[in-house]
Structure formats: C-alpha cells, structure tokens
Amino acid sequence: MAPLHLTLSQVVEGFLLDKRISLKPTTYDNYQWALAKLTAHFDGDPLLADIEPHDITDMLEHLGTTAHKPHGPVDKPRQALSKRSLRNIHAVLSSLWTWAVAEGYTPEHIIRHVSPPRPEERAIVPFTEDDIRAMLAACDESQPYTRPGKRECTNARPTALRDRAMILLFLDTGVRVSELCDIEVQDVDWQNHRLTVLGKRSKERTVQFGRRASKEVWRYLASRANYLPTDPLFVSDEELNEPLNRFAVHKLIRRLGERAGITPDAHPHRFRHTFAINFLRNEGDIFSLKALLGHSSLKTVQQYLAISQVDTVKAHKRASPVDNWKL
C-alpha cells in the first residue's frame, strides 16, 4: 500500500516528474508555476493527506485579492490574479489530487469540494486594418532618437523581416502564441499554403495561410543561413537557432503596439480574434472556423459570430435603400 505520510513538496515533485514527458513544455511550465503558488501558501511543508478544502479556498482567495508577480514577462506590474488564472490553478490542483489519489498518497480528492472560480467575461477587441498597417510599419525602423548636435534619426531594425512575417502569419491563421513558437520549418507546406500546428492537449491540426503571408515568411526564412527542417520557424537567435518563447513574443507585440499607438494594449491573442471575426465577416462558416482555431466546441466561435452579426446589422442600417431613399 502506498504511504500516506508524504509531504506536499514530495508529492508535487513526484507529480511533476510523472508529467514531464506527457505535457508540452509550455503546459509543464504552467503546472510548475501553479504548484509553486500552492507550496508557497503554507508556512511549512504539510503532509498532503492533512491538507483540507478550506486551505485551498483560502489560497485562491489570497491570490485573487493580493498583488503578486504575474506569470510572464518580468516588466509587468504586480497584481492580483484574475479569475481566469485562478481557474487554471484550480485545474492544475485537481490534476495533482487525481494523480495523488490514484497513487495512494492521499485518501480523498479534496479539490472536488472547492468550487472553481468563474472567469470574467473578457471583451473581444480585434485589431483594425489601420492597427495592423501601423504595427507593420513599426517593424521596419527603430524609435526615433537624437544625438547632441545631430538631427533626429532612426535605424533599421535587424528583426524586421521576422517580425513582419510573424504578424502576418498570426493574422492569417489565428494560431495561438504557443503554437506559433512550436512551429518547425518542416511544418510549412509551401506548395499548398498550409501549416501543421500542435494545439492544446497535443491535438495536431492543419491551418491555411494566404500568398502574401507565404511570401513574407519565405523572405524571412531565406534571410537565415543553414537552417534544417527540424529548426524552429521563428528564432530569437539565428546563430543558435533558438526558438522564440511565448513571453518574448508577448513583449515584442506589446512594444510594437505601443510604438504604433494601438489601444488597448496589443497582445498576440488579438490577432486570433481579428482572424476569427474577419473570417466570418467574409462569409466563412462557424464549423470551418472551429476546425481552423482548434476549438473542441462551438461556444467561443459563437462569440465571434455574434460580433460579426452586429457588424451586419450596422452595415444594413447604413446601406438600407428604403431608409436612404426615404421611400
């Protein structure tokens, strides 16, 4: 019979060792972060079997009401965790207790007695065409600067080709930032303008991209030397062929958005919203969109459909011949 005297830190260590192979690196990183919040909540290192539901409730309440360093770029301000983040932590804890009960390290799945936080309904704000054009322009040159006795000038940005290609691929496919970071050169089907991505729960899918995006991605790749089919499509260091990580992409898009004067803040997921809404505006159907986005249900896709239908109502009000002609 498995021992019931293992401490929380021991069980967390065993759980992460067990999950290291089965989880994607980004998911594993999220698990580590969530479980670090759990272990930090207790003054000591309690036995897992001694932890009760009220301990988890107290932890989630504390994280949701007290400013913490967020999971992500270091330059983000400290803030209380959103209900969406708390729900994700709840899911990780549920996975830990499911594993621990199955292994015999605790007699009860206490997370089932803790209601998951209900996430806030976030507004979906797509980029406009002007936003995208301004961001693409921001890729080409550095911010203006001056030197004593000299006129204002700018420099060409060394990552301009990469950043333009990335923006257009985001916009034309709607892929998630973690999916884009995982793309390898061999995942691109240039002839058919298709891309193979590995989505959530390691589900592989194929997405399409257009000729203009294809041209920009090819131009960027052609600027790199001696790449292999298994190399990352987008790299942070061309000599080492190191892939970009999602934190670096978030920081890059936010800074390009600031320089382009985009409000609210630019972030990679807004490209996904923009792709989805414009796909429906241009007579795409929700079932194809669901497959392209890699969603398991139509719930999120229906949110995009509602937005595109509002656009249709507004367009009809502007274009109604009966109203305009005052018949």
Q: Could you say which structural class the secondary elements and strand pairing correspond to?
A: mainly alpha
Run of helices and strands = HHHHHHHEEEHEEHHHHH
Per the CATH scheme, the topology name of the largest domain is hpI Integrase, Chain A
Distance between the termini: 84 Å
* Unreliable sequence segments: none
The biggest beta sheet reads: 3 strands, antiparallel
How large a portion of the residues is in β-strands, by DSSP E? 5-15%
Percent of residues in helices: 40-55%
As an assembly, this protein is single chain
Mean pLDDT rating: 87
Number of domains: 2
The helix count comes to 13
Radius of gyration: 24 Å
Provide a brief overview of the structure:
By secondary structure, the chain is mostly helical. It has 13 helices and 5 strands.
Describe the structure.
The protein is mainly alpha-helical. It has 2 domains: 8-113, Tyrosine recombinase, N-terminal domain (DNA polymerase, domain 1); 129-319, hpI Integrase, Chain A, CATH 1.10.443.10. Helices cover 51% and strands 5% of the residues. It is built from 13 helices and 5 strands. The strands form 2 sheets. Strands 1-2-3 form a 3-stranded antiparallel sheet. A hairpin with a 5-residue loop joins strand 2 (194-198) and strand 3 (204-208). Helix 1 (8-19) runs antiparallel to helix 2 and helix 2 crosses helix 4. The chain is globular and about 70 Å long. The mean pLDDT is 87.
